[in-house]
Amino acid sequence: MPRPIQATITLEALRHNLARARSAADGARVWAVVKANAYGHGVERVFPALRGADGFALLDLAEAETLRALGWGGPILLLEGCFGLEDLATCERLNLWHVVHDAAQIHWLASRTKPRAHRVFLKLNSGMNRLGFTPEQYRVAWQRLQELPAVGSVSHMTHFATADGEPGIADALERFDSAVDGLPGERSLCNSAALLRYGVQPGGRREDAPGVLGDWVRPGIALYGGSPTGAHADVRRWELRPAMSLLTRIIGVQTVEAGSAVGYGATFRAERPMRVGVAAVGYADGYPRHAPTGTPIVVDGVRTRIIGRVSMDMVMVDLDPVRAAGRAADVGSPVLCWGRHLDAELGIDEVAEPSGTLGYELMCALARRVPVQVA
After folding, report:
1. Active-site residue identified among 114, 123, 138, 264
2. What integer pLDDT is reported at residue 1 of this predicted model?
3. What pTM value is reported for the model?
4. What ranges make up the beta strands (E) of the chain?
5. Given 35, 123, 198, 224, the catalytic residue
6. Is 138 labeled as catalytic in the residue annotation?
7. Element of type H or E holding 302
8. What pLDDT, on a 0 to 100 scale, did the predictor assign at position 350?
9. 29 Cβ contact list (under 8 Å, min separation 6)
10. Which CATH number applies to 244-374?
11. 114 is catalytic
12. Which fold has domain 11-225?
């Protein structure tokens, strides 16, 4: 029989999260961000659930080709723009919109002769210092784009560095508003963190950040049921649902005495006699290698913990709490690594946090060897 591990992508959860994003957006149009192969979920798999968005945003031309092949005729935005002059011809062929964040991209556009073929989003560096024109450079770049025959329209964009925490977005929003003041064109500012924090909350409340929703919002991680802050409590507060679940089974059981070591390096020693289950999942499947003892995991519907070091293909789990709850906790018992199975739910951010990372990384790290089904 095949190794007992499987990921499940739940389309209804994706539809629900898209609806939450649209509600938070309060009338702004919604880009569904599907970069990194839809955050590890698979562009082809998520497309039926996310095609209700107003457009798709991504990085790779291959992903844009995939969406067009799937029948998507609406807007597609290249979030990092073109990587070379030759990409502009592909944008024309596939009718792709693209971000302009560097002077080199303007130079490339200046060489194109097809009239009004390119719809671009000019990006302001509002404090991230990653991509984009500084406030001092922004209007010069905008004016240059206006003069190019190949450019059909110019929209305005920025990306907040601290929307998920303090000091918040006030300074960046002020820089953006000042830079684009009086310039025509649509605006796009909000990623998941900004949308969920400053958009309409469940119940109708919203924080005071006038104009932050703009014309387009760009939810990414929120569509997949993860938290942009890394805190699972935010997932519950924003009423998101996990779109990816990773399920395996117990393949072996050990009974160890007090003081016995478990796993590589003998980093864990039993404080008491205990039953240890071996689950068929490891870092070669995308489970975080640095997950420490105590990282939550669910066996037979009961929360317990992993113990010892994560191996390439296996992880050890404490079966005593499962037995104490009256469950079998034996070979063949189901193990939920993250997501939802039957009545049990384990947030991916709860698994990521003990390793000092975010649910984003776990989603994107799902290995090719893990079978995936769509439900």
Report:
1. 264
2. 84
3. 0.96
4. 6-9, 29-33, 55-58, 76-78, 97-100, 118-124, 151-158, 187-188, 216-217, 244-256, 261-262, 268-269, 274-279, 296-299, 302-307, 315-318, 334-341, 344-346, 372-374
5. 35
6. no
7. strand 302-307
8. 97
9. 54, 55, 215, 216, 217
10. 2.40.37.10
11. no
12. TIM Barrel (3.20.20)
